[in-house]
Each structure stands twice: as structure tokens, then as C-alpha cells.
Amino acid sequence: MAPPTLPTSLSPHVCILASPDVQEVLEGAGLPSLPEILQCFSPLPQITTRTTSLTSVPHASFALRFSDVVEIENAVHEDEEQRAGRMLDWMGSRISERCERWVDMLESAASGGGSKMWRDRTPWWEEVKRCVEGDYVPSSSEGWNHPVSLISVVTTTAANPLQALQDLTTRAFDFPPWVDLTSMRYFLIIHPANAPLADPIAEALFNAVKKQYGLHSFLLPLHLPTDPLPPPVPVPSLPPRLPALPSLQTVPHTPQPALPGSNMLSPVPTPTPPPHPASPMPSAAKPPPLTNKASDNPPSSPTVYTGSTLRLTQDDIQQIGRFVREFVTMSLIPWMEKCVMEWNETYSSSRRLPSRLFSSTRRLFGASSASAPATPTHGSSPSVSSVTSRLTHGQNSSVSSIASVTSVSTMGGGIVNQQRRLAEFATILGDYKLAISVWETLRKDGRGGSDVLPLLSAPSPALSLHADHALSTLRGPQPRQIAAYEVPAHAQLRALAYAVRWETGIDRQEFLGPTLEGERWLVKAASSAEEPPTAILYAHAAFLSESRGGRRKAAFWYLIAAEKLEKTGIKPLAMYFFRKAHSLYRDSPSKELSPAFWESEDRSPTEWEGFPAVLSAIEHELGRLLYTTGDTAAAVKYFLGLLKPPVQHGPQLHSPHAANGTGSPLLPQPSRDKVYLEDFRVAFKHFKTTEGDTWKQLSLRLPITFCQAKQTCIRFPGDSVQGDSAAWEKLEQDWSEFWSLRGKEKLGKSGKAAVNENFWVDVALRNPLDVEVTLTRLTVTVREASAEEADAAPDFVEVDIVDDIVLGPKDTRTIPVSVKSSQPVVLVVTNAVYEFFSLLPAVESLAVRGRRLNDTPIQRQDKVYAPDVLMTVEVEEAEQRLHAHFVDDSHLNLAQGEYKHQRVWLTNSGTRPIRDIWVIGGEQDELWFDACNVDNTTDPSSSSSAKTEVLHSSNSLAPRKPYRISLDAIHSAPQLAPGEEMQLPFILHAAHHGEKDLSLLFVFRETEGSEFHSTRVTRRYEVKPILKVTTSARPSASANETYIINVEIENVMGSSNIELKQLLTIGASWECSPMLPPSLVVVPPRQLANISLGARPTKPGTGPSETGEFVVRKLKVVLEGEQVDASEPPPLDLTCTHIAPDANIVPVNTPATRHFIHCGRRTMTAQATAASHPDIPTRLHRSIFSLYNPSTIDIVLFWELPALRRTGHILLQGPTLGAGHAPLRELVTAARSMKVKRSMYAETQRERAAILEAVQACEWNREDDPVAVFVHEGGIVEHDFRQGPCHVPVAFTFRNLSLTHPARITLKLAETPEGNPAHNLLPPPYAGRLTFRRVLDPSQSSTTQTRLWVTRPGCYTLDSWTAETEVGEPTSPAPSDAVPGALPAWRSRQLRYVQRPQAGERSCVTVVDIGRLA
To answer: Less Cβ crowding at N or C end of the chain, within 10 Å?
Structure first.
């Protein structure tokens, strides 16, 4: 390991006490003070020291620090916290003064190739280092700045040099008690050439001084010519020093001899001491410090010191250099080595085991005063006389004795004791082995050392722990509080000093290596303090991290440094650091990826956006700084660049609201876009106001786009701007399918405009920002297709301009811009033009990128696209035009199921007549068009007196066909001539609640064989529910009804009564009748009404069995994977029963009512089928499933709101009655075991399995227990038990609910039933036959009688029975030669069920003993 390079701040501190004549001589020669002159000769090259083991240690350079005793005395009395605060402020002011020049220097060097001077260092860090290393004031926490030597200086120009030297020797020092005055006294006599004493007399004077004060003396002869002055000699610049506090710049005391017994350590002077009399050593104005920059103004006289140079002759320079070297090598170093030797003996003896035991014994049991050492050491409290003798250095005192220069050092509570001075001296002398040992001891005792050990030890992970410990010791335990903890100023300054020492004293490669990661030490030293030096620590850590390749970490630390500098007002350097962070965040990391990756991801290897969230925050800060510094143009560019869509794939990485913990996650964060937009508006408006049209030279372009070119389209008068585009495409597709079977004419697209007729460019605008924006003067640019791109719009084309378009955050709107041409032409829409907040004009292209080309090998190997596609409009003379709009286009609020009469106004605006018109409605829209009698006989509310009707249904799910409008019926002529108008009436049935669009597509043509054209009309309406209807069914024990159906009707309105005018039931296999005589039912608001119906099988009609067989046959084809043919289900006859209070009923066979019921049923069945069989294509549903399930009951409820004069009906699917017997069971089993062709696609296998599961669970494969068991209660039986027990009869009724299959039932009664004590009922004592068997034909019922043998009165429950059911196959017709009366052969369906009393059923019989009543 190479010897460490100690920082200058860890070098010996030499204090100089000069007589007044010294300063007069130097000022007369145009020289600065003596400490500044001597400082120019530091460091000394090639110095050798010795360790305690007498090993020579060579030093390539040995630094010294010289200062004036008076300055140190004035500064040491200032409060350390106050001085540290002033030190930080002073460094901040120096940084603020020089930062702009630094930034200009670095930017000019970077732009011009630059010098290599600042590649491995930065000027701001060098400035901070010089300021920290220039602090020579002693501290109570460490001894590096405590004086090591005290040089008393006189000149031979004094009247009595010996007396002047005696005065300096006897001068009292004004230091606090904690300052360690263990120092070597040295005496210097300056003999200038113009002195009154001759050279021999000066030599005699020097010999007398050596005889009186010792060998630590030197005679320095100097020429110091004044006329003329010597040429200036460049010298190293001196480190800057903190200016003294005005209140502490007191006039030094006149040197006077010390009185016997007086204390030489004077108390701290008060901030405003009383004035002193004139002194022979006045406080003259000091010369300016040595700096790198010469004074801007020339000196007024040749004797004024100009700085950075010394006017000394070469002989004087050699003499001073010889003195400095002799002082160091002959006096200072030997004295320090002797101190180390003797202190090491004391330290070693204290570390021996007996000594430690003896010390512990004294500490525990006490010690006599006679055992105190005779020789005082560090930490002792000697007498005042001994202190005086040590400080006065009497004639017989030995200047080389350590005891004679020892002073009290721990009286003020400081930690600078003998061990610490030993460690410091050993460190300075290069005895690192001893120094590390002593520093470790001090560290363990809590007296420091952790800050120095990293400088002396080899790199290891332990050094990071030493650094952490040193910094944590400074700050101490931080309080637990929400507000940020503010580190004291003295702790900040010491942490800064530690960081400077570490960065300077540790080798750069080791400091930045992976073992130490020294840049993190600087960050920890900076902590969270808001001071410029702290920001410089972050900046230098970022600089070091950047040099070792840690760009992301460097960018983050640059960002922190910039924020801190911005808060302190140092804006030039803050902007420089913001730019550094911005450039580092934008640099793309190296990605060693395969070229195939970029091709597969369709991305460019050079495409890198950086970290948008952080970059936006940095750019915003740069813009604000530039705006406040007057660079409005650059600020506008930054603010404009911030207007871009926010990043959604990541959290915010740089949030100023949460930086100090003040943000709340429960409150919504303010939008950044709002702040950016407001700053842009303010800055740009100010720039336009102050600079006029200069903004046009900036070439500003809006970085975001509002126009969505793909969604922008051309709309002609025949098109509808409302409605869903998918719904219009579906209507056009329905028309194409309808007409494909009738003709070859195509539906022409309305892609042409007419002359002198407006068409619209529907510009789709989307606001990508999270803030409301305003666009003004929106228009589009058009040109002729044959013209050049740069040509202006033709004069015969008029384009509208739309003002004040307000887009909310993330809002999407479509703005129509009307265009009209006065002559036929082909126009091309190229751009959209608008003004952003009436400030910045913007132009966006409406071209859509062409398709990717794959025709040639070159095109397939690279990305090649066809030319961009522009919107083209052909304007021609008007021929066939049909305009449609509603007569009343106000917003509709309808009740669910309401009938609403509507009218559409049709106008022929073309130049040719129209003879054929069709209208197509939505798939779920229930519309009735009857051109002849729409207002009369076809009203759905027309009445008839029939109670039961038969509805012949096609039973098909086929979509309804377009309605052809009969012009003869509603118009005066068979054609609609140009300019003529007519009204088309129709009825809308609002079947489904919610917001709806009534979309009508009108298809028309001139004559048969000509091309079809279309127009659209849309109306928005809202349907609100008024009734909530639910149904339920249960088997009935009555012989007249098989089921009892309960219809529950709830009025969900809050203000109106609803009258139920009629209830209609529709079924193919069941018919219903009311349980009670029908009456008018009025349901008040928020109330319920119940209607009970009895259901029984109808006579076999046309269709139920054929419908079931059709569905089974088609599902078999589906399961086998074969092609489904296009056949449709057979028709079905439905029995309709009207339940109304009077004969005024709505017949079901009126065209409008029949149409609405068919449409409603088709919608319900189509939705249920699509939900149950999603894997079967919807187009095949009409060929597989039927419209009605023969087992279901549909209920139609006709209502009326008398107060509002509204009528309507509600259709709902009722319960499914009867029993199902899994008719698809064999098909499903066969399909599971069927050997199918293997497929390479797993999706095919999963789809087939899903179809199989759906078929097995569908309503056509329903399976139920067909037998319902009813136990007839015996009621109350009276018996006189004095005559003995009695028999109580009990009847069991069995009903076969199946309409197609017989059932065989076995009833088993328990022989010894057990009672349930919880019910307080007695078990049934069945007697006689306990097993009964019956065979029930479809819909047949049977009753079985049994008895109870009752021996005592009580209540007997009628449970403890089990009914076993087996389903048989349907009975085939008997052959002609069959024996009359013979029973048909039983064939089991292999379906068996077990039925027991239901939980909670309480059928019972009560037997009363009348004998007790007698």
C-alpha cells in the first residue's frame, strides 16, 4: 500500500507572533504579512521523519500552515455554531459570485473541445476544498488546528530588539481553556539590509537570543529593496479565510510582562469590549489575500501589495526557503518526534495489564493525593505557577522539554487530550502503525478517530463503517418528528471537512472502487441540509459517480444538488446541474440484445425516451429558472416541450409535493399538465407582448396532436352523425343479406357530395392532457386533387371556421367543419388548422399512413409502406337524395313497454324521382309500420271479446325483414318526385329499459334494376322501468290444475298508480286460468299485487313434439361435427288465454300485437341462446333452435297509466312446466365416446368440449322427477279411547307431471318410525299394508289409502315415507292383433328418483280423546 497523502488541513499549524516593527518593514517593502509570505513556501519537498521504532519515513511533500496569533485569538472566542453558520454562508456567497464564470468556462471548453484541466475535477469543488482547508481556527472537537509551534518574530530595526522579544515572550495568550498549547517556542530575528544594526552586531544579537531562549532560533537576513522594487514572482495562491466577525476584531493587548501568580489564559472578551489606549502595535489594514485573479485596478503606489505575486529578490527567496526548511527539519520535526516518543511511553504504560488493573483499583477504592504524578501531563490540573512557568519560558527553562510546554487542554470540556495529540502527531510524522492503534483506542472510547482511520487504513468494507460512524456521531440521535430534522451548522461544517479530507486523502481509484464507493460517503456527509456547500457535496458525488459509469445515480444526485442550489438562489449553477441531470437521464443504456429482438418488437435500437416523469420535472425547473433570469424565449421552448401526454406505465419518480413528506396519498395530486400549461401561457403571452413578432423566428411547434386522423371522416347529408357505427354496419349487412336472395343490385355508399350542398369533415379531437384546453379558429385545408400540395384552396370552395372549442381532460369530441363547393370537383382534405389558446397556430396532417407492402422480397425484408392516404371527396351534381328527420326530435322519456307513435319526415332533395323505399330498424327495436291503418285498426290496444285464442307462430328465430313503404298509401302518387315531402307514421314499443338509440336506415332507388341508395336517421330515447314482475310455479294437488302459477307485480314508480288492464298467457302445451274471478287490479306506488293462475295441459296440438324432435335432430348434427342444414323449425300453435275484468280485451291476433309479441320473444330467445351456446355461431341458431320451448309459459301484462294517458305491455318468459327426461342424454353419451378426428389445434378440442357441456346443460336436456306426492291431512279425528284404539285413514296422491312418459312409483311406509322430539309430534303408527306400487300414465294422478293405528290421543306427523320413481319410455300404439285389455310392455328410461318428505313439511293429523270430555 502506498503511503497516504494527507490533506493540508491535517498539517502542523504554526502561529506567528510578530512585533509591530515586523509589519512596518514588510509594508514598506510592498509585502503581505509574514504568515502569508511563509505560507508561499509550503509544502516543503523531500522531508524525512522517524517513527517510534526509529524507522525513516520519507515525505515527498510536507505541508505547513502559518497564521497570525492575533487573528486566531480573535476567531477562537466566537461561538462554534455561529462561526460554522457564517462559514457556510461565506462559502455560499463565494460560490454564488463565481458560479456564472465557472459555468461559462466549462460550457465554452466543452463546445470548443476544451482543455483537459477540468476532466477530473470541478471548480466548485475545488473552491469548497480551499475554503475548508483555509480554516485554521482551533476547534474543541479536534486538535488539528491547535498550534504546534509558536514563532516570536522581531526585526533589527526595532529600537531594542531584545526588549521587543522579551515583550513577545511574556505576552499573555487569549485562548479558551480547551485550546491545547502544547507547542514549541521558536524565535526569529529578521535583519533587513536597511536596518541600523550592522551585520556583526546582528550576529551578536542572535547569539544572545540563543543563549537566553535556546537553540530554536534563527537570524533571517533580507535585502528587501524598495527603490526600485524587485520584479513580482508568481507564488501559489493562498487558501481563502473566513472574514473576522466585526465585533471580535479588537485591538490586541500591549505586550506586558506577566505578574507572578497570574493566569496567562485570559477569559473570553465580551462582544463589545471597552476601548483600549493607543498601542505600539496598531491594528492596521491588512493586505488583500492571495488569489488566483489579479486586481482589476492597478496599484496606486508601488508599495501596495497586489496579490498572487511576491516582490522578493532571489536571494531573499532562498533565505526564506532556507529558514523554513531549517525550522521544519531542525526544530519542529525533532520536537514532534520527541513528543511522540514520550507520549507513546505514557500511552503504552496505560495499556499494560497491571496498569489497567491498578487504574481500576484506584477508580473503585480511591487513591491518596500523594500518588499523583510529579510531572503534569495532558488532562492534569497543574498549579497556576507551573502553568505560568511553562508559558513564560524563563531563562533556565529547557525549550526542548515536553513538560515545560505542556498546558491544560481539557478544562473546557474538549476532547483534545494527550492521546489525541499523540495520534495527530504520529499521523503527521508518518508513523501510521502507531497512529492507527491510537486512533482505534480513541474510537472505542468515543473520542473520535473514525474520520481519520479511512485515510490511514487499507481499503476494506470496514472503512465505510468508520465513515458512517463518524457522520452519525456528529449528528447524534435524530428526534422522531414529522418535520425534517435540521442538522446544526457545526455538524454540517465538520461533515463537510470530513468529506474533503476523505476525497483528498484517499486515492481516487480506491475511493471510487467497489469496496469503498466513496461517492456515497459524500452523499451521507451532505445529509438533508439546505446549504450551498451541501449541494456541492451532492454535485461532486454525482461527478465522481458519472466518472465511474453510474449515470442514473449521478443524474439523481445532480438533481438534488440543483434543487438545493435553486432554493438558495444560486441559479446559474442550479441550471447547469439541471442540464447535467437532464442529459444523463436522456442517455440510453447500453443494451446487448439481438437484432431480432428489435425487429420482433417493431422498435428502433436508437429509440429511447429516457425517464419522462423525471425529465418533465427537470425541464419545468429549467424553464422557470430561465424565465426568472430573463431568457423568456428559452423558457417558452421548455414549457412548450412539456405539453405532452403523461406516462401511464410508471409512478411519478420526481414529485415536489412529496419530497419533504408533505404530500398525502389520500388527496388527489394536482395535475402537472395544468401547471405546465399555465406557465406556458404566461411566458408566451409575456414574450409576445414584449418582443412583438420575434416569436415567429423561434419556429415553435406544438409537441402534442389533438386530431385523430383515423377517426376523422367525411359525412354527407344522408349520413347520421349519431348512433353507433357498428350498428349502422349491421343494418347495412342485414339489407345486403335480405336483398341477396332477391336481386343483384348493390347498396351504393354515400361517398359523393352534391354541388351547393354542405358536407362535413368530422374532425375527431382528443385531448391528451389532464387539463382543460381551448382551441380556436378550427378549420381544414382542402385542395383540388389535380393541384399541387402547396396550392391554396380554390375560390369556389367555402370552409367553415369553428371558434372556442373547449376540451376537458382526456376528453374526446367530434367537431364538424362544413365544406361547400359551388361546382363539381374532386377535393382532397389535407390538414386541420387551429390556434392553441389563441396564442400558437398549429397545423396537423389528416393523412393516414398507408398499408404495409409485402409484394416484393425487398418489401418483405424491410418496412415499406404505401403512400399516405388522404380523404378525398367527389362533388357532383345532385341526382338522388333523400333526407329524413323526425317530426318531433325532442328527447323521449318512455315507460318500459309503452307504445309511442312517431313520424318521420321524408324529403326528396335530389333531381330524380324515388319509387321504392325500404326501412330497416335495429335488431332489438320493436317497430310497427302500417302505412294504411297505423292510426286506426292496427293499434295494439284494439279490443275484442274472445277469451281464448290460438296463435299460429312460425317458431323461427329468423330476423325480421325490412319494411317496404307503400307510397300509394301514404303519398298522393306512386313515386316521390324531386322536392316533394311525406310523413311516415309508425309505432315504437319501448321493450327494454335504459338509454337507447332508435336508428333507422332508409334504402331507396329510382326504378327497378337501378342502384340502391341509403339515408339514416337516429333519435335518442330513455326507457324507465315501472313494473317489476316475477313468476313462480308449484305442483297442485287439485284435480283441475296441475300447477299453480303465482305472478307478483310490483309498482316501482314513486308517484302514479298503475292499472293492470289484462294478463295474457301464451303456451304450446299448457293453458292457464285464473284461480279467482278476474277484477281490475290497481297497483299503488311502491306496492305489490299477486295474481294466481292454474295451469293444466292442453289438448295435443300442432308442433310441440315436432319442435322437440327438430331440436334434438339438429343438436345431434352439431355434436357429430357435421354441417347443419338451413331448415327451420316447424310452426307451432300457441294457446293464448286472456284474463281481464271485462270483455274489453286486447286480441293477440291483431297485426301490431302479434308482431310485438313475436319480436319480444325473438329477442329473449336469441339472447338466452347466445348466452347458453356461445361456441355455436349465431348465424346457425335459427337452423338449430326454435323460437318457443313447448314447455314454457309466456306472460304478457297490459298496463295503463290513466293519469299520464300511457299504455303498453310487458312480455316476460314465465316458468317452465312439466317434467323433462333428458332427451339429449344418449346424444351426449355417444358424443363423448365417439372417435373424432385429431386436430393440431387445441382450440378446436376445447371448443368441442365447451359445445358438449353447453348442450348437456341446456333447457332442451332438462331432467326432473316427474312424480309429485301429496299427503292429505286427516284434520281432527275424535275418538273415545275408553273403547280402545282406533284407525285413522290417511290418503297419498301421486301425480305424473310428465306429458310424454309414464312413471312407476313405489311408496314405502316405515314400520317402526322414530319421532322427532324437537317437533313435539308423535311418529305415525302405520298399520296394515306398508308398500304400494302404481304405474301412472302421462298427466295421470292416483290416490292410495292407508291407516294409522292410534292407541292414544295426540298429534301425529305424516312422514316416515319414501317414494321411489322410475321413468318409462313413451307407450307406442298397440298393434291391431293385440289382445284387448292387455297392458303395454314396460320399457324403462333408466331414470330413477327417490323422494322423501321435504324439510320443514308439517303434514299431521290430530286425534282427540272425547272420553275425557264426557
So the answer is: C
> In degrees rounded to 5, what are phi and psi of residue 1365?
-120, 140
The rounded distance, in Å, linking the Cα atoms of 118 and 106 is: 8
Pairing verdict, β 309-310 and 233-234? antiparallel
The beta-strand segments (E) located in 286-325 are 309-310
Per cent of the chain over pLDDT 90 is 37
- The rounded distance, in Å, linking the Cα atoms of 221 and 190 is 6
The winner for highest mean pLDDT among 930-934, 1303-1307, 1374-1378 is 1303-1307
pLDDT(1028) > 90: yes
Q: Does the model's pTM come out above 0.85?
A: no
The candidate with the shortest Cα–Cα distance to 1061, out of 1043, 1046, 1070, 1049, is 1049
Strand order in the sheet with 892-895: 892-895, 1013-1024, 994-1005, 916-920, 963-964
The strand pair at 948-953 and 1027-1035 is best described as unpaired
Q: How far is CA 802 from the centre of its chain?
A: 37
> What value does the mean pLDDT take over residues 580-607?
77
Collapsing DSSP to helix, strand or coil, 419 comes out as: helix
Q: H helices of 1173-1269, where?
A: 1225-1233, 1242-1257
- Which of the 8 DSSP states describes residue 343? H
CA distance 4 to 1320: 102
Report residue 744 as a C-alpha cell: 343483384
Listing DSSP states for 562-603 in one string gives HHHHHHHT-HHHHHHHHHHHHHHHHSPPP----HHHHHHHT-
Quote the pLDDT of residue 795. Answer: 86
Cα separation, 1005 vs 1014, whole angstroms: 9
Query: Which residues 6+ apart lie within 8 Å of 719 measured at CB?
Result: 750, 1015, 1016
Closest alpha carbon to 574 in 132, 131, 240, 124: 124
Read off the pLDDT of residues 172-226 as tens digits, 9 standing for 90 and up.
888 888 898 889 999 999 999 888 888 889 899 999 998 988 899 999 999 888 7
> Lowest mean pLDDT: which of 362-376, 422-436, 555-569, 595-609?
362-376
Q: Look at the block and give the residue holding cell 274471478.
A: 1077
> CA-CA distances (angstroms) from residue 173 to 241, 257, 267?
22, 12, 10
Residues forming a β-bridge with 192: 222
Distance CA 1331, CA 783 (A): 98
Distance, CA of 1366 to CA of 1267 (rounded, Å): 9
Q: Where are the beta strands (DSSP E) in 239-295?
A: none
Question: Considering the chain, what is the average pLDDT of its residues?
Answer: 82
| Contacts of residue 445, Cβ cutoff 8 Å, sequence gap at least 6 | none
In one letter, which amino acid is 4?
P
**Spatial separation of the C-alpha atoms in residues 1138 and 1222, rounded to whole Å:** 33
Tell me how crowded residue 268 is: count the other CB atoms within 10 A of its CB. 14
Tens digits of per-residue pLDDT, 384-395? 233 333 333 333
Element containing residue 464 per DSSP (H, E):
helix 461-475
Instruction: Give the residues across from 852 on adjacent strands.
Output: 865
C-alpha 738/C-alpha 928 separation (Å) is 19
**Is residue 815 within 8 Å of residue 778, measured between CB atoms?**
yes
Residues 1261 and 64: their CA atoms lie apart, in Å, by 105
* CA-based nearest residue to 837, from 997, 700, 1026: 700
> How many residues can be counted in the chain?
1414
| Cell numbers found for residue 153 | 518574530
Residue with cell string 418528528: 481
Cβ-contact 530, 124 below 8 angstroms: no
Instruction: Please give the single-letter amino acid code of residue 17.
Output: L
CA distance 1343 to 470: 102
Q: Where are the alpha helices (DSSP H) in 327-417?
A: 333-351, 353-365, 384-392
Q: In this structure, what DSSP letter does residue 1009 have?
A: T
How much helix, strand and coil, in percent to the nearest 5, is found in the chain? 30, 25, 45
DSSP 328: I
- Which residues on neighbouring strands pair with residue 1355, listed in sequence order? 1406
